[in-house]
Give the backbone structure.
Amino acid sequence: MNARGLGSQLKDSIPVTELSASGPFEQHDLLRKGLPCVKNELLPSHPPELSEKNFQFNQDKMNFSTLRNIQGLFAALKLQMEFKAVQQVQRLPFLPSSNLSLDILRGNDETIGFEDILNDPSQSELMGEPHLMVEYKLFIFMKIEGLHVVYSHLFTII
């Protein structure tokens, strides 16, 4: 389920797998990942789970196709450009962003759902280091693998 601000919070934050040990001697993290089960990785745990994960994407797709059929191609393109512009404006990665303007464009500003109450990113149990989160968003985060330092972004010299 994608919460209003959680999507941007998770996209901008550093994945836990980036900071964990990797390799042949890695231990399974029971606290974060639960008990290991191959079946859960291959299939959804519940039949409507896949539909619920893609609900907002399918809803936007249906709204754009309806708008394109009624008002023409450029109305849908204009609305998509507004969506992209609104999604790019956010706070620093370690601060929760409410995405109020995106909710207004989608019409979710007047509705209360489970994502408003149950999955609030401002009440998250995980808090990363702010400097690392900003570096990760700007693609200057360094990963240390063994004795070599690997930069995830190459700087160009003009």
User: Anything to note?
Assistant: Residues 1-10, 145-158 have pLDDT under 50 and may be disordered. The longest strand covers residues 142-145.
